[in-house]
């Protein structure tokens, strides 16, 4: 056994002292219970260990091959966004007390994390207009799947209705999660003109549904204008109404809590966390304050309580829902979640505050409206493709053009995006998804529009 | 003489740090400006005109605070939290080892943090290469040749593993196999994951030595058996020395052997999972491979499978084609997608960096010292009054061990919970308690390889003092802790009267005020 810099007792002398106090002579004595025939003679070959400076050099050498949103301007979205991360968020999240701690099982020594997560839950409730938010799930897609499982338990029904305009990867995840339960996932079409859900089709599929889901903005960036009608429909048929949201839209737009939603899910990566190639992300879930819903929530919930010394404090609440107590009857298997991203979101939302979240929402509305119009003025391009109201994202159509080569071409011109969507929507094979963030200037958008015009020219 | 105090910011009569909603505002605010020319171009004077009136929102309800106030608030909260660099953190089954800072530095490079999952493959070759190399290293370490890095956590990996088993059995026309065998000492998530994947759970008892009861396993295994989920070493910290027989029983019944990697740290570089007969396994990169836990996540739960099961992995899979790396979506019998995108990439980078730094020899240093420390600590603690070792007496443990404080409770009325709370007053993090459920008043201790001998001795001394205190003055231990930010919390109340958000809190207060005093 070789001594290592990050392993305190690994030097020969200390090992000898410790072994001799136990009356042993060799580390291998401690592995005498492992059947001899499976003990490895040589360690697995993963190469020689290297020192930090060499490791950093090697990492940089490999990572140099990545084109970043610093090198290029990022117009990609679809569930992960390059929004600005205030430096204070990184500063707080790198405090070892938050970065390295485990799940706060021992509340008295973990008040900081517990209060920060309680604040995250509370801030999400304010944004969404709901009463109870979970301490985090893995991402939007698994939050959607968990919402469906919740609705199935609450209603004891076996059908889930979801629009085809919801993110394709989320629909795939939903199917993966529900397949073992034998639950039907019914997809409803979108309106070809508006890009919003086809309400009539929704109504036609609503019978016996456990959950009716709307995503707003949907995958095409279109804001659903009939969330209330869908929620009413769900309730009239005994289903739960679930809504998927981009929380940044809620600074300026009506929250699902005011529109009849029972469950809200969404993505929180861009609330103060970087893109990181799509993970880690932050699954948001919030419900109305009815105990029949709260008791069926998946994963951790932080609640308020009091201490023996008479102080307000925080601790994990309603743990009998969870796997470590309820085992196979738990509401979910989730254990580790995305806590640090929840804390990041708490810092982000607190720092932005009322004024910040509203001005950000307006800026995103203005920027996307600007870019849509700029692109639509270019011959051969149409934007947006749908007539509904768009938030932050929209489709560009280049009629009759196959987009598959265009992202590479755009990357060479210094742009990330747009995202061709033909692999998910055959009928929209000549469309691509574009997103804006507050990082993009007017000049960035102008040059993106021009490059796109060049890019699609045969 | 040690004297520990956790920071305690008591800023109100009945609270510590106020909630962000209770803090006073004033001063400027974060503001995003719409660039000149944009509104003109759109022909509006006010951006609100761009939003249909019936969709507009008047008020959100977020606080309005300046940056210094926000910074102080969250720094104070962090000071009232205990991390791995605060001190010993023997939280059994959680592998709270030191997280190297070089991993953090690399993961914070823009080439990791600011790349988008939908970029063209040609622009993320570095990211794909790191994922590919990590998969290769995990394959070497486990003997399982094919990996998916998608799962966001260990339990997510378990769910994926169970789905793979299910899908494989369906392919074989063995879909009637709907029972998952799980030892009673397993992590709670095993049971929940199996159930989520549609299996009936059949619990397998432990034998007198704390291992899977082979007789009971033989009796339970049959034509309904889909598999067995095993943790080795198990949650008692004991190596399942009958693992080859266990695998034989499961395989000859037609089931698959699943391995929960939560305890891999004990045998890192010493045993291949494949040689134990494992078909499917998940590894907790946030445990064994030293990525930080972040107060509960993000983690990463890589899943490896033996030859013949790779066609069920979730899409996409990272592959090498010549000198290029690609995301392959053409996995013929895939279980589907279990999340958006490709995994917790930033976490994967940290695990990659850790393994590069350890190298082949370092793997054994980690497991060797983790097991050495655990055995040393166990040998120092097992003779103390009030403590017994219900399983594994007189034989080596692996990376952790489980004490029972049942004798202490019997003699003094002081429970494992009380001792855990008092440990906090010594500046250490308590062990996992009341787990596994087959041990009464369980104290599950995992020192990891990151504690020095002097720190282990300090921990032992703290235990000695507490056990003494329990004998002399049990009430004082029962009232612990007193040196943490807050005293003992009423956890039952948080469930009996749930207040889960600021708005619920406000509603409760309004209700109570409405009722008036009395």
Quote the beta fraction of chain A. Answer: 5-15%
Largest interface: A-B, 210 and 206 residues
Cα shape of chain A? globular
Strand order of the largest sheet of chain A: 2-8-7-6-5-3-4
Distance between the termini of chain B: 48 Å
Radius of gyration of chain A (Å): 25 Å
Shape of chain B: globular
Q: Assign a percent range to the helix content of chain A.
A: 25-40%
Structural class of chain A: alpha/beta
Q: Round the mean pLDDT of chain A to the nearest integer and report it.
A: 97
List the defining traits of the structure above.
heterodimer, A: 458 residues, alpha/beta, seven-stranded mixed β-sheet, three-stranded antiparallel β-sheet, 14 helices, 36% helix, 13% strand, B: 518 residues, 12 strands, globular
Description of the molecule:
The complex is a heterodimer of chains A (458) and B (518). Chain A is α/β, with parallel strands linked by helices and 458 residues long. Chain A contains 14 helices and 14 strands. In chain A, the strands form four sheets. Chain A has a seven-stranded mixed beta sheet with strand order 2-8-7-6-5-3-4, with helices on both faces. The longest helix of chain A has 38 residues. The N and C termini of chain A lie far apart (63 Å). In chain B, strands 1-7-6-5-4-2-3 form a seven-stranded mixed beta sheet, with helices on both faces. In chain B, strands 10-12-11 form a three-stranded antiparallel beta sheet, with helices on one face. Chain B has a two-stranded antiparallel sheet with strand order 8-9. In chain B, strand 8 and strand 9 form a beta hairpin. Chain B is globular. The model of chain B has no long low-confidence stretch (mean pLDDT 96).
């Amino acid at each position: 056994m070789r001594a290592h810099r990050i392993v305190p007792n690994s030097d020969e002398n200390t090992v000898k002292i410790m072994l001799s106090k136990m009356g042993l002579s060799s580390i291998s004595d401690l592995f005498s219970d492992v059947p001899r025939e499976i003990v490895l003679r040589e360690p697995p070959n993963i190469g020689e260990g290297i020192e930090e400076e060499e490791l950093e050099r090697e990492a940089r050498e490999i990572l140099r091959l990545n084109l970043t949103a610093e090198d290029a301007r990022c117009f990609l979205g679809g569930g992960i966004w390059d929004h600005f991360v205030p430096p204070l968020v990184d500063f707080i999240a790198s405090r070892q007390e938050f970065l390295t701690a485990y799940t706060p099982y021992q509340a008295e020594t973990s008040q900081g994390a517990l209060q920060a997560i309680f604040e995250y839950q509370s801030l999400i409730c304010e944004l969404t207009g709901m009463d109870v938010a979970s301490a985090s799930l893995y991402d939007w897609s698994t939050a959607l799947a968990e919402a469906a499982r919740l609705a199935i338990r609450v209603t004891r029904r076996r059908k889930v209705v979801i629009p085809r305009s919801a993110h394709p990867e989320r629909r795939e995840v939903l199917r993966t999660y529900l397949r073992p339960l034998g639950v039907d996932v019914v997809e409803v079409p979108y309106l070809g003109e508006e890009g919003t859900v086809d309400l009539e089709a929704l109504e036609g599929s609503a019978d016996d549904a456990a959950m009716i889901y709307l995503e707003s903005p949907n995958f095409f960036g279109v804001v659903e204008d009939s969330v209330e009608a869908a929620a009413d429909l769900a309730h009239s048929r005994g289903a739960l109404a679930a809504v998927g949201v981009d929380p940044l839209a809620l600074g300026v737009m009506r929250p699902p809590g005011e529109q009849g939603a029972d469950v809200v899910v969404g993505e929180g990566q861009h609330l103060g966390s970087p893109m990181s190639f799509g993970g880690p992300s932050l699954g948001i879930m919030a419900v109305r304050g009815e105990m029949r819903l709260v008791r069926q929530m998946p994963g951790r919930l932080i609640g308020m309580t009091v201490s023996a010394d008479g102080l307000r404090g925080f601790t994990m609440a309603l743990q009998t829902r969870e796997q470590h107590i309820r085992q196979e009857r738990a509401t979910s298997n989730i254990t580790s979640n995305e806590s640090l991203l929840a804390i990041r979101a708490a810092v982000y939302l607190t720092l932005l505050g009322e004024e910040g979240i509203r001005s950000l929402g307006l800026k995103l509305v203005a920027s996307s409206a600007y870019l849509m119009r700029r692109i639509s003025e270019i011959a051969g391009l149409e934007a947006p493709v749908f007539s509904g109201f768009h938030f932050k994202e929209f489709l560009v159509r280049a009629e009759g053009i196959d987009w598959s080569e265009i992202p590479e071409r755009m990357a060479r011109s210094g742009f990330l995006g747009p995202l061709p969507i033909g692999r998910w929507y055959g009928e929209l094979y000549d469309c691509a998804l574009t997103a804006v963030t507050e990082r993009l200037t007017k000049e960035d958008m102008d040059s993106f529009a021009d490059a796109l015009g060049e890019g699609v020219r045969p | 003489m040690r004297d520990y105090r956790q920071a305690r910011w008591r800023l109100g009569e009945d609270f510590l740090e106020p909630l962000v909603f209770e803090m006073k505002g004033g001063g400027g605010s974060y503001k995003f400006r719409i660039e000149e020319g944009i509104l003109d171009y759109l022909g509006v004077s006010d951006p609100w005109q761009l939003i249909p009136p019936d969709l507009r929102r008047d008020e959100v309800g977020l606080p309005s605070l300046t940056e210094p106030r926000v910074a102080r608030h969250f720094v104070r909260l962090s000071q009232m939290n205990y991390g791995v660099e605060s001190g010993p953190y023997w939280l059994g089954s959680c592998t709270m080892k030191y997280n190297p800072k070089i991993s953090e530095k690399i993961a914070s490079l823009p080439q990791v943090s600011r790349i988008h999952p939908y970029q063209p493959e040609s622009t993320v070759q570095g990211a794909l290469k790191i994922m590919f190399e990590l998969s290769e290293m995990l394959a070497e370490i486990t003997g399982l040749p094919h990996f998916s890095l998608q799962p966001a956590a260990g339990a997510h990996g378990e769910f994926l593993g169970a789905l793979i088993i299910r899908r494989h059995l369906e392919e074989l026309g063995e879909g009637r196999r709907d029972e998952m065998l799980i030892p009673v000492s397993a992590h709670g998530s095993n049971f929940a994951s199996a159930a989520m994947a549609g299996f009936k759970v059949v619990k397998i008892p432990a034998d007198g030595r704390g291992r899977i009861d082979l007789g009971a396993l033989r009796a339970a295994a049959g034509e309904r058996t889909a598999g067995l989920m095993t943790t080795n070493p198990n949650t008692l910290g004991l190596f399942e020395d009958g693992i080859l027989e266990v695998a034989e029983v499961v395989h000859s019944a037609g089931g698959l052997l699943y391995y929960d990697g939560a305890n891999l740290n004990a045998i890192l570089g010493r045993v291949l999972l494949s040689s134990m007969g494992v078909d499917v396994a998940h590894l907790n990169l946030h445990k064994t491979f030293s990525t930080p836990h972040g107060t509960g996540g993000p983690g990463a739960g890589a899943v490896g499978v033996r030859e013949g099961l790779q066609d069920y992995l979730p899409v996409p899979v990272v592959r090498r084609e010549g000198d290029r790396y690609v995301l392959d979506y053409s996995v013929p019998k895939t279980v589907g997608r279990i999340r958006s995108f490709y995994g917790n990439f930033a976490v994967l980078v940290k695990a990659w960096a850790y393994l590069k730094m350890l190298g082949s020899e370092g793997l054994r240093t980690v497991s060797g010292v983790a097991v050495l420390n655990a055995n040393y600590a166990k040998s120092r603690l097992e003779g103390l009054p009030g403590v017994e070792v219900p399983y594994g007496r007189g034989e080596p443990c692996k990376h952790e061990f489980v004490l029972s404080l049942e004798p202490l409770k019997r003699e003094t009325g002081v429970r494992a919970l009380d001792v855990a709370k008092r440990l906090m007053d010594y500046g250490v993090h308590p062990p996992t308690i009341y787990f596994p459920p087959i041990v009464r008043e369980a104290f599950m201790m995992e020192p990891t390889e990151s504690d020095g001998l002097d720190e282990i001795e300090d921990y032992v001394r703290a235990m000695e003092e507490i056990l003494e205190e329990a004998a002399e003055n049990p009430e004082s231990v029962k009232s612990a802790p007193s040196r943490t930010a807050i005293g003992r919390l009423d956890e039952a109340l948080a469930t009996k009267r749930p207040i889960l958000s600021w708005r619920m809190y406000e509603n409760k207060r309004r209700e109570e005020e409405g009722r008036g005093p009395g």
